[in-house]
Amino acid sequence: MAHLARLTFDEAEEKAMLGDLNQILDWVEKLKELDTTGVEPLRFMSGEVNNFRVDQADNMLEKDKALKLAPQADGDHVLVPKVLKND
Questions:
Q1: Residues near 80 by Cβ (< 8 Å), separated by ≥ 6?
Q2: pLDDT digit string (tens) for 67-83?
Q3: CA-CA distance, 2 to 16, in Å (whole number)?
Q4: Distances from the Cα of 53 to the Cαs of 47, 49, 56, 58, in angstroms?
Q5: Phi, psi for residue 24 in degrees, rounded to 5
């Protein structure tokens, strides 16, 4: 898992992380012992109600003006520095 998450640990840290992970797995196993017959699954973390609003565009900037404001542009696109590398 550490490799997939791109994490590196020394030997002491690895032992500590392994201990923590085992504690979490033991806790999950303990939860499996509970009788949840008749208990509804939790769908929301709170009783709050989301008041949805209409998604409406406002204060739009025209394309030509946006391109003029950009530090770099090539016709129809704003140019930005590359942030991802191909390994």
A1: 72
A2: 999 999 998 999 998 88
A3: 13
A4: 19, 13, 9, 14
A5: -65, -45
